[in-house]
Structure formats: structure tokens, C-alpha cells
Design goal:
With 321 residues, the chain is α/β, with parallel strands linked by helices. The protein folds into two domains: 209 residues, no CATH class; 86 residues, Arc Repressor Mutant, subunit A (Orthogonal Bundle). 38% of the residues lie in helices and 24% in strands. Strands 1-2-3-4-8-10 form a six-stranded mixed sheet, with helices on both faces. Strands 7-6-5-9 form a four-stranded mixed sheet. It has a three-stranded antiparallel sheet with strand order 11-12-13, with no helix packed on it. This is Nuclease-related domain-containing protein.
């Protein structure tokens, strides 16, 4: 049973938003595009594994995706967490192409692609850290100490995987082997301790409650100044930021395209780039409108929460609009 769906990572949405609102010749464009490609590849790899999880019996397996938990002032993040009454399975998903050599001596993975080599941190080290921290978290929260097992799943079925170390061959698998590995775990833990349904639900609820999504400013991360971001409402037809509000509608000065609610996409961008808190003055500045009454009307139509009075009022935007 899938209790926490896999969502598009917020970092992807933020990178897409900032790329849309920076000048095309901005010095950070290439870096942003490269990072976006990496995050999209990782997400696509994670999604591809979901296909192989669909065959698991709903009543026996509780599946949580993208879990991020704080313990001892440190966060640990798990791509996919599978809970059963007998054990917990952590899946660390890697989407790498080319030839991947796992080096146990130097604790690294070396990718060879198009004649070039690139080193990555040992995924088993990351997996062991996740297992340890989850075990500590269960103990700290006085939850049943179910056995925890971890696997690294190489989602790219065309990648060539090589290693002579047993620690890698036992823990690193292809997606086509996932069902077989889970069956082996079922047999291995079959005679072990089994928690009751209510205890498993308790563990699941506590994990969901402890989940803490990463909140980080994309502009600060890449050293982009607020005033470098292009303001205005974008035209869906010609993609210019040239919409003006006239007679209750947005109209493009270039192609005459009109829309009643084009400002919603712009405010989604605002949330991703600057956060959910916004004042009337900030909304007018970002949408490039010169009308406090129109700003008030937009806030009212969006039915957003507000704090403070008059000029000190701060609104909390909903994402997505």
C-alpha cells in the first residue's frame, strides 16, 4: 500500500522556475541547467522503480517515498521505505549510465562514460548511515525494533555494473531483481518477531509525522540576487513577460493573448523563488501592477491566510495555486 506518493522534488520545481525567470545569458544558466538535468535523472530513476513495486501485495507492504527525518540535529533522507510486520526495507535508488565500478578499497563508485571517468561516494556507506539513523530514531521514539535491511537499486537497466567485493554484490541490485530480493527477505525473516498491525500503523504514522521536507532558498543556494529575477506575468502563447491587467483580464502586449488567471502561475513562481509569505506591496511589485485594490482582490479570490493589519498585513500563498 502506497501511503506516501512520490512527488516531483521541490528542487526540480525551483530550478525550473528560476531558469524561466533569469535572462537567457545569465552567468548561472549553464550550471542551473546541468543541475536540473541531474535532479531530473535521479527522479526518473526513482519513478522507474515504482513499476516494480506495484506487484507487492497491498496488505503486507506499506510504502513511503521521499522520507526526510531529523535525529540528533542531523537529517537523513530515504528514497523509498518499505514497512512490513517483520522487517523494514530501505531502497537507495541510483540512476547512473555507462560502466559503474564499485571500489571497496577506496569506498567509491567510478562511472566510465564516453571515455571519461567520474567518481561518486560509495552508495553502501550512505545506505549504512540510513540504516543506523533509522534504527536510532526507532529506539529514541520507543518504537518496536524491527530488523532493518537496505538495498541499492541501480535503476538504469543498460548500465554495466562491476565489482569483485561481496559486500557490493549482495547489496546492489538491478530493478528486475527487486521482487526476488524481497521474496528472499520474506523467507529470511519469516520465522522472526512479528509486530501487530496496530504497531506497524503506529510506526508508519510516527514516520509520516516526523517527515520534514527540505526548505532552502534556491536564490541563496546559487548566489542569485533577488533583483536579477524577471518580474511580471508570463504569456502562455509567446512566453514574454508582457501581460497587463485590463478590464478584469490579463492581455499580452505582443500577441494579444488573454487570460483571466495568468497571475496564478506567476505566484507559483513567487512561492518557489521567494517563499510563501508576501505583502500587498510585494505582490504588486512582482506582478507589475500599480493598484492596491487589485492586489486585495487577488488575495481575496485566492482565499489566502493573512496576519497583521493594514500596511503590516502579511499573506501566506498556497502552492500550487
Amino acid at each position: 500500500m502506497n501511503l506516501k506518493e512520490r512527488q516531483i522534488p521541490e528542487i526540480i520545481l525551483k530550478l525550473q522556475a528560476v531558469l524561466e525567470r533569469l535572462p537567457k545569458r545569465h552567468e548561472k544558466i549553464i550550471l542551473l541547467k546541468n543541475d536540473l538535468s541531474k535532479f531530473q535523472a535521479g527522479f526518473n530513476g526513482e519513478k522507474s522503480i515504482d513499476f516494480y513495486l506495484q506487484t507487492l501485495p497491498n496488505q503486507h507492504f506499506l510504502i513511503l517515498h521521499d522520507v526526510r527525518i531529523l535525529i540528533n540535529n542531523q537529517f537523513f533522507q530515504i528514497d523509498t521505505l518499505i514497512l512490513t510486520k517483520k522487517y523494514i526495507l530501505i531502497l537507495e535508488i541510483k540512476n547512473l549510465s555507462g560502466i559503474i565500478d564499485f571500489d571497496g578499497e577506496f569506498n567509491q563508485a567510478v562511472q566510465t562514460k564516453n571515455g571519461e571517468q567520474k567518481a561518486f561516494p560509495d552508495p553502501l556507506f550512505q545506505l549504512n548511515r540510513q540504516e543506523t539513523m533509522l534504527r536510532q530514531w526507532l529506539d529514541l521514539n520507543q518504537l518496536p525494533p524491527l530488523p532493518i535491511h537496505g538495498l541499492v537499486v541501480m535503476s538504469n537497466i543498460h548500465a554495466v555494473i562491476r565489482s569483485n567485493h561481496e559486500q557490493f554484490t549482495q547489496k546492489i541490485i538491478r530493478p528486475t531483481s527487486l521482487a526476488q530480493k524481497i521474496n528472499e527477505l520474506e523467507d529470511y525473516y519469516g520465522q522472526g518477531i512479528e509486530v501487530q498491525d496496530k504497531e506497524l500503523k503506529k510506526i508508519t504514522k510516527r514516520i509520516l509525522k516526523a517527515h520534514s521536507p527540505l526548505k532552502k532558498s534556491i536564490l541563496e543556494s546559487y548566489g542569485i540576487a533577488r533583483d536579477e529575477v524577471i518580474r511580471g506575468v508570463c504569456c502562455d502563447q509567446c512566453h514574454n513577460y508582457a501581460l497587463k491587467r485590463r478590464h478584469g483580464r490579463w492581455k499580452c502586449d505582443y500577441c494579444n493573448w488573454t487570460s483571466k488567471d495568468a497571475h496564478k502561475n506567476a505566484l507559483n513562481d513567487y512561492c518557489l523563488l521567494f517563499g510563501e509569505k508576501i505583502t500587498s506591496r510585494e505582490l504588486q511589485h512582482f506582478l507589475m501592477i500599480d493598484s492596491p485594490s487589485l492586489a486585495t482582490r487577488i488575495f481575496r479570490e485566492l482565499n489566502v491566510q493573512r496576519e497583521g493589519n493594514k500596511k503590516s498585513t502579511v499573506y501566506t500563498l498556497k502552492f500550487p495555486q
